[in-house]
Amino acid sequence: MSLSMIMSMVVTLLGALYTIATLLLPAAKIGNPGAPKVFPLMLGIALLLFGILLVLEEIRKFPKTDEEKAKAKKSLEFGSAEKNIVWTIINGVLYALLFDRIGYVFSTFIFLGLELIIFRGKKGWVKSLIIALIFSVVAFLLFNTALGIFLPTSFLKFV
Q1: In whole angstroms, what is the distance from residue 19 CA to residue 15 CA?
Q2: How far is CA 94 from the centre of its chain?
């Protein structure tokens, strides 16, 4: 079984569990009783549907000939895709640890910059860091000013 098939099944399972957990949420005491469940339910159903589509796509890609089977077996060896997954997990943990300590802008800049370098390569690292910086600052300003959702600020207090 390929790594893609395993991850597709995990996404499907998470979608099902998330949808079930959403349905178990208590009804709101004020206003529309079902309102707090609407958005999470949409997310859960979308995750479930996308997981099912991924599983079906992986089933469609199953090798049929011996040559395809040999190629599929070779592709299971630890390669760049698996390394990218491991680096992304490490980067996600680093992001979670830094988020409250150094603020949204700096932690998101580091996270997104590293992700772009991981997936785009080291060759265009300057462009990746510029994209990460612009996204971090614009998202921070959008959340803080337009949406009124206050994200953790840095020790510099202006960002």
Answers
A1: 6
A2: 14
C-alpha span between 76 and 16 (Å, rounded): 27
Give the Cα separation of 13 and 48 in Å (integer): 7
Contact 147, 120 (CB under 8 A): no
Tokens representing 92 are 């996600």
pLDDT at 156: 65
Cβ contacts of 122 within 8 Å, gap of 6 or more: none
Helices (H) and strands (E) in the chain, counts: 6, 0
Cα Rg for the chain, rounded, in angstroms?
A: 21
What would the two tokens of residue 40 be? 């999470």
CB burial readout 24-58, b (16+ within 10 A) else e: eeeeeeeeeeeeebeeebeebeebbeebbebbeeb
Query: What are 16-64's pLDDT values in tens digits?
Result: 999 999 999 888 888 787 778 888 899 999 999 999 999 999 888 876 7
Closest residue by Cα to residue 56 from 5, 118, 107, 103: 5
